[in-house]
Write a structure and sequence with these properties.
Number of domains: 1
Number of strands: 14
Strand order of the largest sheet: 5-14-9-6-8-7
Number of helices: 8
Strand content: 25-35%
Structural class: alpha+beta
Distance between the termini: 64 Å
Radius of gyration: 27 Å
Order of helices and strands: HEEEEHHEHEHHHHEEEEEEEE
Helix content: 10-25%
Shape: flat
Length: about 290
């Protein structure tokens, strides 16, 4: 007896396509937003930002009847070149756009925006591993309360660092913070709403507001974050992400590109000592932990 099967009835069985795309995961963009923005000082032309140092003089004892000695020294400067130019480009043929169920151009624009923002965060994160003098923590291990206190002390010892400070760590390091009762207990932080438990928040720690990002420097299990003050890290954006497009009549296609021009930098602070002419990474502390 003949049967109607999935094979014989194949032309009667339809197929369905998802109304939305399975978009790639996107990390939260955090790091570059924390950098001080000095784009305003580089408006218009120019690719190099010069930052001269001004050091402190010596207070000498004046002896009666004796002229004071004139003090002078040669100051230095730090030069920061804005040279990072990044671009994403696509060509979308009309045939593909007409036939597609999805808005290809809108999807590509969304993806390009994320790609550029992520690239800037990665560039900013690369600077977090530079300070080899002022470092706390151990790679591959959770940070301790003592580590955070020592980082705060580094900034205080350096002088001139004005709170609130900014801290950036990996999610794994943040998870370690959640195990430190002093950071989460309402008796210490005044949180009576249980945000540490319900929202995984640790609040402000030693005059520092902490953030977490998956894009910290290092390959698991190692991660390098940072605690810093003021404009120790800064960015200069010469062109915010911009869209460019032209239509090719021979290819019957839109050629699209998105680009940005910027620089992210770490400043070295002028040393406090009288008549010094040196600079150092005084207002930043590398936080070594795990990922």
């Amino acid at each position: 007896m003949p049967n109607v099967t999935s094979t014989t009835a194949d032309v009667f069985i339809d197929e369905k396509w998802s109304p939305e795309l399975n978009r790639a995961v996107q990390f939260d963009i955090v790091i570059a937003d924390l950098f001080d923005d000095k784009s305003g000082v580089m408006q218009g032309s120019g690719d190099i930002f010069h930052w001269p140092a001004r050091h402190n003089p010596t207070a000498n004892t004046k002896s009666a009847g004796t002229d004071a000695s004139v003090e002078s020294w040669t100051e230095t400067q730090q030069n920061f070149t804005v040279s990072t130019h990044q671009i994403v480009a696509h060509e979308i043929e009309d045939f593909a756009e007409v036939m597609s169920k999805y808005n290809i151009r809108a999807e590509m624009t969304m993806a390009a925006s994320y790609a550029l923002a992520r690239a800037m965060d990665v560039a900013a994160a690369a600077l977090l591993d530079d300070n080899t003098t002022q470092t706390v923590g151990v790679l591959g291990s959770e940070m301790t309360d003592d580590n955070v206190i020592r980082a705060w002390q580094y900034l205080m010892d350096a002088g001139g660092a004005r709170p609130p400070f900014k801290g950036l760590v990996s999610p794994a390091c943040w998870g370690g913070f959640l195990k430190i009762e002093k950071f989460t207990n309402q008796l210490f932080n005044g949180d009576s709403g249980g945000k540490a438990l319900h929202e995984a928040q640790i609040g402000k720690v030693y005059q520092s507001t902490f953030y977490h990002s998956q894009l910290t420097v290092g390959t698991a299990p190692n991660s390098s974050g940072h605690l810093w003050a003021g404009d120790h890290f800064f960015k200069i954006i010469k062109r915010k992400p911009a869209t460019h497009a032209w239509y090719s009549p021979l290819a019957t296609a839109w050629v699209l590109s998105w680009d940005q021009i910027y620089g992210v930098f770490e400043k070295q602070e002028a040393d406090e000592a009288a008549a010094a002419t040196t600079t150092a990474r005084l207002h930043g502390v590398r936080l070594q932990s795990l990922k």
